[in-house]
Structure formats: C-alpha cells, structure tokens
Amino acid sequence: MTRVVAVTGAGGRVGAACLRAQADRGEVVIAVDRRRGNGPGEWRRADLRRARSARRALAGATHLIHLAGYPAPDPSLGWRVLTDNVAMTANVLDAFAGGRPETAVLASSFCVYGLVFPPSLGSPQYLPIDEDHPAKAADPYGLSKIALEHLAGVWSEHTGATSVAIRFPWTAAPGESERISRYLGSMRDDPHSSSSAGSLWTSVHIDDLADAFVRALDVHDGRAHVLNVSSPWLPVDEALTRLAASAHPRAERRPGLDDVGALDTRRARELLGWAPTRTFADVLPSPR
C-alpha cells in the first residue's frame, strides 16, 4: 500500500520544514492549509474547524502530521484559541479515522507543563522534566494541547491506530537570524529573568523537530505516545544545574540534568531513534 501523508498547517514554519523532510524521503504528500503554499505535495485548502472540510482535505491519507492551529495564546481571541484548536484536532482525527489510518503525529507543546504563559506555576516539580511530569497549563493555548493529547489517546484506543504527540519548546529556522537573536539573545543577557526561567532555557532547531515528526510516522504499534523533543544545548555560558538552583530552588534536581537538558528526551531517542544534531550557536551573537 502506498503511504500518503497528510500535513495540516503545511503553510506554517514547522509545516514547511516537514514538507522538506518528506520530499527528501520521496513521500506522497497532501499539504493542507487555509491558503495554498509553495512547498511540495498536493495542496488542499481547508477550514479544519468544519468537519466536512476536514474530511475532504484528508481523503486518501494513510498517515497524518497535524500541525494546524493557533501557535500561542492571543489576547484578541481569548478562549477561542482553546475552542478552535480543540475543534480542529477533533475534526482532523475524526476525518482521518474514516479512511485508512495507520499513524497520526500531532504537535503538542512544552507549554502543557504550565511554566510559560500566565497563569504560570512558576517552577516545575523536578528537572529534567519527563513526560510523566504533571501537565498543569491553565492558559487557552496550553489547555488546547492538553486536550489534543487526550483526544489522540482516545482516538488510538478506538481505532487501534498509532498516535504520537510531540511536546517541543521554542523553535526557529536557520534563516530567522533576527528572531533567534532577539529571543535567545535576551535569554543570554538575563538568564535569571522570569521569562528565561519559564522557558527552562530550551529550544530546538526546526529541522531537528521536523526530523522527529517524520520519524514518528514510522511507529506502528497501535498505542498512544507522548514525547518530549528538545536540544540540551544552552544559549548561556552557565551550567544548567546552577541555573536551575537559582531560578527554581524548590524543584527537585535529578541526576543527569546537565547532560540531558531541562527536557528529558530519552523516550524520543528510544522510540524514534531521534537525537538533535543542530544548534543556533552560529547565529546567536557573542555574549556581551
């Protein structure tokens, strides 16, 4: 059977990276977005908040990468970020189940842990954070990703197909030097600020992230998985154990923090054979 991969949100930054990665593998791709993009694949326009539109867009797909949705809280939208993101995930999974589903890979977020967007918990229970750490997000975006993971688990249970939800932190592409310098440069300037501490000084290169999504398409065990994906690389010249002790003194610091990074990605390594190979060191300005 020919493998046909549908990518929702294909016109976004992560979607474009996934399309490039799949083109390198010679995949048959359906690229789904509200607007037609320029990447490889058969492009289908869809409003995934509508079930009928989702069914048309995913017709013929055997594998799915679901990236569509609001990528962060938006004060102008309020709780619509939650309701629309959940509606899109539910419609996409339902439409996919009506065909020949084998594996669905979904974009979750590091934000489920409740450390980034207000109201924030402030500190994790322990570091490095693994996938068993409580997901305590209370903002519309973080809650939408908690709901996404739950929907994926229920979907796998009912269909017998595999789902993989990937939790990832801030990401950027090589050409986004200004964005990289602004975000990681501010972290380097003040690694102990509340925003730096909430992010846990984490990032992942967009091509490494796309590699994880594409590798997850090869998992076929009929189970629901949740995986952290991140790089242990730090944009600051200070050991992670020292940063954590200062910014998160109440968090239990477990062995291997400096080696693993703030997000424990060992499950992704075991299930996908994935490991990050890129950093932003060549783009980030030198320390002041």
What does this protein look like?
The chain has 288 residues and is an alpha/beta fold. The protein is globular and about 50 Å long. The N and C termini lie far apart (56 Å). Helix content is 38%, strand content 15%. Helix 1 links the parallel strand 1 and strand 2.
Which structural class should the secondary elements be placed in? alpha/beta
* Structure summary, number of beta strands: 11
Q: Report the mean per-residue pLDDT as an integer.
A: 93
Overall geometry comes to globular
Which strand order does the major sheet show? 3-2-1-4-5-7-10
Distance between the termini: 56 Å
Number of helices: 10
Per DSSP, what share of the residues sits in E-state strands of 2 or more residues? 5-15%
- Radius of gyration over all CA atoms, rounded: 18 Å
Unreliable segments of 5+ consecutive residues: none
Series of H and E elements: EHEEHEHEEHEEHHEHEHEHH
What characterizes the major β-sheet?
Answer: 7 strands, parallel
Oligomerization state: single chain
Measured as a percent range, the helix fraction is: 25-40%
